[in-house]
Amino acid sequence: MNNRFFSSLALRNIKSNKQLYIPFLLSSTAIIAMFFLMVSLMTNKFVQERSSSLPTLFMIGVVVIGIFSVIFILYTNSFLIKRRKKEIGLYGILGLEKKHVAKILFFESLFSSLLSIAAGLLAGLLFGRLVFMLLNFMLRMPNDIAYTTSLLSVGATVALFVLIFGITLLYNISQFTFANPIKLLKGKQEGEKEPKGSLILFILSLIFLGWGYAISITIPDPLAAIEKFFLAVLLVIIGTYLLFISGSIFILKALKNNKRIYYRSGAFISISGMLYRMKQNAVGLANICILASMVIIAVSTTITIYLGSEETLENRFPYEHNLKLFGDMDYVAEMNNRFFELQDEVIELTEENGLEVAEMESYRYESFFGNLEDGSFVFEQSSVDGDLPVLMMVIPLQDFNGMTGENYSLADDEALFYHSTKTYLKEDLSIGNKTYSLTEIENEFSADMALTESIALVVPDEAHLLDLREDYMGQFPESTHITVDAEIGWNTEGTEAAEKALAEQLESEYNGVSGSFSRYESRDSQREEWYSINGGFLFLGVFLGLLFTLGTLLITYFKQISEGFDDRGKFQIMQKVGLDENMIKDSTKSQIIWMFILPIVIATIHVSFAYPIVRKLLLIFGVTNDMTWLMTFIAVVIAFAGIYWMIYRVTSKVYYSIVK
Question: Which of 188, 396, 479, 522 shows a CA-CA span of 20 to 30 A to 263?
Fold first, then answer.
């Protein structure tokens, strides 16, 4: 027997199993095209030169899609090979040696992989321009990203998926190499024994889920959310698998023990059937639930970030023109003088460019790190191990009154006090050698104070800043970061051309000051970079959302196919003993509804509990509007539920056609 015989036999096998192979090939093609497009974006010359953040974002996309591709193709291939165990076993019974069967599987894998990779690359090339147009729209750059491909992108895509398909071939060969042909003939008829419900696993599932939910609900600030987010995700994933494996069995056994429910024809068939194979079903349901959660979170958060771009710009850059002055420890007096000089200078430059100053805010401040301990603020250095220290910003009263328009007055031992977490309830606070009587105020400062636990302390005058600095340096004489800094922000009225000219002049003028250094930023100059970052996030979120939705669709489809073939023989027997077609359809419908409703309900619960930690993470991007996130979340859940319902309609019809 030559290779032509084995190759023709492989082609015939693919055609005869087209109900399995067509979805597998289509899904593989789609994943390959998505990976190829993401690699093309990452290696695009314009992307690399235009924004330093975009290549990193697309690199994350490449890694995520690559990992997902390995897991997904191996997972769906396992469904495919399971359906063909009887066929492979039959080859052994008919006299083919194992090396001959390996050749057949090799050619099947060769044809399917070549077709998928070629179709994926072609689809990537054809739809590439459309994808780049979408990305250009999201990034809002002045010049469009040119659509280009490279041999590196093609080579990376081919190399990865040749490796993946090679692993699937080795897995498929291993399925019959170490198995008895007689056992293979019965492979797809072998059901699982009724799983035993484990109270320990069920309790563990609740512990893991409760732990993950508790992290999300109790997270104190956005910086802590970054550290805890992936731990919470891992705990919820573990808890989800344990919940579906153990909790579903408890529910089904409880229904089985309820005679009024169980001893009805439809319930008897559906409950018994689901309980009999629940161990396998539970893993599939958990996979669908986790993928659904990923879709909802990825798409809703990235849309929220993109929609909140203007809000973010306003929070990060409260004025059209923003000048920060960083003082040197050895030039504090010079810095104070320079602070007042700069205000006059920027007003003069603004007027020279034909603009009017519409609004101005300026203040000096000093920042310390430490911890609140029994009525005292204990100094710490910024680079500490363990929990993040509390950040304290100290502002002179003169500057605070100027920036807020208030007219507070303070005695030498009094201070105005703002605490981001509002957990400090004492009336006095000791810092260094001073003790202040506190008057609580609201946040009149930066939106960034919500990123970590922060304190704003308004003291009677700038001399208090220097006294606190001396107390700090007495404890940490080697420290170099404690300085008196300042911020000046102002809005202008005039033409767009004059605004641009002023911004260019300020950028070149204030790139460093003797005894200190400054940094000028305009809101307009940051808008392009900010939209490129947020647009990249949105593109990546939508891209990954489509990928995870595709995974949900294919896992559901193959699961329905597998369940349909497993159930067909059983229902044929039931028909012979008197069950009519309507009764069979009613009983199977309850199983399918159970399988479809449960994952989306649990996924929605997961995402609802994830709201607090996601909300904290959104603060890092400057998104403070809760309504934007809430409405986006609801819209994405409804949209995904609609897609999920369509998946249900399509796959349930396939299931019914097989069972009949």
Answer: 188
